[in-house]
């Protein structure tokens, strides 16, 4: 079974003769960080070195050239909609009323987080002495308003010279903390047919979400919502019709496939986590092989689980090999990237990358490349090798702080440099095999 990790810029297409059967980042918050240290966080062949500010975890014959399938045209995400009670509940969850914490205490709290957690990655603007002096200067006078306290925190963080370390207002922190939508777990796209008419097609399903469980499948056409014909409506309008209060019901009429039977389904809306995985089965032209295509949009807490589920289902559907599309994946949870890289360390042929392959995506690409499991094809990656944590302050605001840095197994500092690909254009399979063979011989010798 061949595994290809795709992160290309231009939409490619499958080769007619593929090989036969034979992948703002932040971590959960920690209350206290105690010291700066160097740790090796990855086991086995992964061997990515993480430089962090604490050992505590925190809130990472010539064969024809291969051309992977066209990436799915994903529709825009379903809009977030909440009733007033839900918004109030969310605010109460994340925001303490101002009288419980003084302006000086908020500034002190932000200062302490940086003092305990911040990793200066070479700008040399931070030192314990200068940081202590900054606290004394700021807290030497009374801070009259909360907005003034927030402004002082912004200035304090800006003095570090790290563009990733920044302040989050209560609204910004609340938005970042929110990952759920109320709906049935589908994305809809407007697809023109041969006659010029526009059909509303299901172009993405949340694994085991309400719609998927009820029987909606990729490629189904949405015909009506709650008895209302949706012909002539936009995908956004129909997505809005599908939204509603949690645990209420919506009835949708769908046509399975292009010419299949129609069916009305009553589906209960749920708060469903956004799955980062999109998958489909591709039939290869002039070949009995099928390709399991998986697109990973970000590395969140669901990434590994949903990717494993997608792989299993595609295997059951007859996939001979896989493509993991990391195109424009800007990263996410570092640990998710580590776990996903482990899934593919035993097998791999090609990783396609572009200049928006960043952070946790670069972890996956470099881990497979440096361990001779894959070649890199495409463009130099973005070059974000810093790790941030998000910390909540007691008034509901927050700070994002750089707490670590990673280098590749070959000790390349990714940050600001990126990873150079082995090939700019798609290589032939023989070229891939020869490159990986040379890589392994070099490592052994």
TrEMBL record:
PDZ domain mapped to chain residues: 170-243
Picking any one GO molecular function of the record gives: endopeptidase activity
What InterPro entries has UniProt attached to this entry? ClpP/crotonase-like_dom_sf (IPR029045), PDZ (IPR001478), PDZ_6 (IPR041489), PDZ_sf (IPR036034), Peptidase_S41A (IPR004447), Tail-specific_protease (IPR005151)
What keywords is this UniProt entry annotated with?
Answer: Hydrolase, Protease, Serine protease
Please list where the region (Disordered) is annotated: 58-87
Q: Where is the composition biased (Pro residues)?
A: 65-74
Question: One GO biological process from the UniProt record?
Answer: proteolysis
Q: Which family does it belong to?
A: Belongs to the peptidase S41A family.
Q: What is this protein called?
A: PDZ domain-containing protein
**Organism, scientific name:** Gossypium mustelinum
- Specify the taxonomic lineage: Eukaryota, Viridiplantae, Streptophyta, Embryophyta, Tracheophyta
């Amino acid at each position: 079974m061949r595994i290809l990790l795709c992160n290309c810029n231009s939409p490619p297409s499958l080769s007619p003769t593929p090989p036969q059967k034979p992948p703002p980042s932040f971590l959960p918050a920690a209350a206290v960080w105690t010291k700066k240290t160097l740790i090796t966080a990855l086991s086995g062949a992964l061997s990515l070195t993480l430089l962090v500010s604490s050992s505590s975890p925190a809130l990472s014959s010539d064969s024809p050239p291969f051309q992977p399938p066209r990436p799915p045209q994903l529709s825009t995400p379903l809009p977030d909609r909440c009733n007033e009670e839900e918004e109030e509940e969310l605010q109460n969850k994340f925001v303490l009323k101002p009288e419980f914490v003084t302006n000086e205490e908020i500034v002190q709290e932000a200062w302490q987080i940086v003092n305990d957690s911040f990793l200066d990655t070479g700008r040399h603007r931070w030192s314990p002495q200068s940081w202590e002096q900054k606290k004394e200067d700021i807290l030497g006078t009374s801070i009259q308003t909360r907005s003034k306290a927030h402004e002082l925190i912004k200035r304090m963080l800006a003095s570090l010279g790290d563009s990733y370390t920044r302040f989050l207002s209560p609204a910004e922190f609340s938005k970042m903390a929110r990952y759920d939508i109320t709906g049935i777990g589908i994305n809809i796209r407007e697809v023109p047919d041969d006659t010029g008419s526009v059909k509303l097609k299901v172009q993405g399903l949340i694994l085991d979400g309400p719609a998927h469980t009820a029987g909606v499948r990729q490629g189904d056409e949405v015909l009506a919502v709650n008895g209302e014909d949706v012909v002539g409506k936009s995908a956004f309008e129909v997505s809005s019709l599908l939204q509603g209060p949690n645990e209420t019901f919506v009835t949708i009429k769908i046509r399975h496939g292009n010419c299949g039977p129609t069916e009305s389904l009553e589906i209960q809306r749920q708060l469903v986590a956004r799955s980062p995985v999109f998958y489909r089965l591709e039939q290869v032209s002039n070949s009995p092989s099928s390709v399991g295509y998986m697109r990973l949009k970000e590395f969140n807490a669901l990434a590994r689980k949903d990717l494993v589920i997608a792989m299993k289902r595609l295997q059951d559907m007859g996939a001979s090999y896989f493509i993991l599309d990391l195109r424009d994946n800007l990263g996410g949870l570092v640990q998710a990237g580590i776990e996903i890289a482990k899934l593919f360390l035993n097998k791999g042929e090609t990783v396609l990358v572009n200049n928006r392959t960043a952070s946790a995506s670069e972890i996956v690409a470099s881990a497979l490349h440096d361990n001779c499991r894959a070649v890199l094809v495409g463009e130099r990656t973005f070059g974000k090798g810093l790790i941030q944590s998000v910390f909540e302050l007691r008034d509901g605001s927050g700070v994002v702080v750089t707490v670590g840095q990673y280098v590749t197994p070959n000790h390349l500092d990714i940050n600001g440099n990126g990873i150079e690909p082995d090939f700019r254009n798609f290589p032939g399979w023989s070229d891939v095999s020869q490159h990986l063979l040379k890589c392994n011989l070099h490592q052994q010798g």
